[in-house]
Write a structure and sequence with these properties.
Elements (H helix, E strand, L loop, with lengths): L3 E4 L2 E4 L4 E7 L8 E8 L2 E9 L6 E3 L10 E6 L4 E6 L8 E8 L15 E6 L1
Parallel strand pairs: 2-10
Antiparallel strand pairs: 1-3, 3-8, 4-5, 4-9, 5-6, 7-8, 9-10
Length: about 120
């Protein structure tokens, strides 16, 4: 079973930055696209960003409080780690952030389990 270990969260002020990491055990990391998720009203988790297996293609959620332009997803296939750089943080970004392997186009999680997540708290 691939283990998912998120880290890097913390407490920051509005406008601050954080870099989240998701380390995945096992040799299958390079075979998957990876995505970040966070809880949302009425949803267990909503999609935030996805990166393809090669890292050349990325896509960000396009909802009213868009993360595009503020968040950057990246991956290191040698370290089996996917990152989410959070810039210009807003209080609305406060959440526990999770990662999972996904189908790049549907964003559907590959694994039916989640890690412990990493808490991001943005103070106003």
């Amino acid at each position: 079973q691939v283990q998912l270990v998120e880290s890097g969260g913390g407490l920051v002020q509005t406008g601050g930055s954080l870099r989240l990491s998701c380390a995945a055990s096992g040799r299958t990391f390079v075979s998957y696209a990876w995505a970040w998720f966070r809880p949302a009203p009425g949803k267990e988790r909503e999609f935030v960003a996805v990166i393809s297996t090669s890292g050349r293609n990325v896509y960000y959620a396009d909802y009213s409080d868009s993360v595009k332009g503020r968040f950057t997803i990246s991956r290191d296939n040698v370290k089996s780690t996917v990152y989410l750089q959070l810039n210009s943080l807003k209080p609305e970004d406060t959440a526990v952030y999770y990662c999972n392997a996904v189908d790049y186009y549907s964003r559907r999680p590959v694994f039916d389990y989640w890690g412990q997540g990493t808490q991001v708290t943005v103070s106003s």
